[in-house]
Amino acid sequence: MESKAAIDRLSALALPARLDVFRLLVRAGPHGIAAGEIAAELGQAPNTLSAQLNVLSAAGLILGTRDGRSIRYAAQPQALSELIVYLMEDCCGGRPEVCAPVQAAAARADCCPPAKPKARRPVRA
User: Fold this and answer.
1) Greatest pairwise CA separation for the chain in angstroms
2) For the stretch 86-117, what's the b/e string if a residue is b when 16 or more beta carbons lie within 10 angstroms of its beta carbon?
3) Could you read off the pLDDT of 28-47 as tens digits, one per residue?
4) What does the domain layout of the chain look like in residue ranges?
5) Is domain 3-107 annotated with CATH 1.10.10.10?
6) Total-model pTM
7) Among 88, 18, 30, 23, CA closest to 58
8) Alpha-carbon distance 105 to 109, whole Å?
9) I want to staple 98 with a disulfide (CB 3.0 to 4.6 A). Which of 4, 79, 92, 106 is the partner?
């Protein structure tokens, strides 16, 4: 990983509101959440949320896909794994075995299992 990509990802997560969005999407799993649901869940105004999602997307931490009239966003756990591995490459003062468990967990593709789906409330007409 290039240091610029690491800086972009760290910067994207450095604002509490963006960190909240990212953590919510990680919990949601690979199917993600529609933008409107994210706004409702976190109590963010749609225009503010849009800016947060753009920054996270530009950093490669999330991906938005069109689902009808809305966009569903999902975390990209591989991007976070790459960041963790990059940050820990030279850790522990020449004793890599100290950091090895964290690096191994971050490098595994299954480190971020999908969350259990929430029960949806029926829409009342």
Assistant:
1) 64
2) bbbeeeeeeeeeebeeebeebeeeeebeeeee
3) 999 999 999 999 999 999 88
4) 3-107
5) yes
6) 0.75
7) 18
8) 9
9) 92
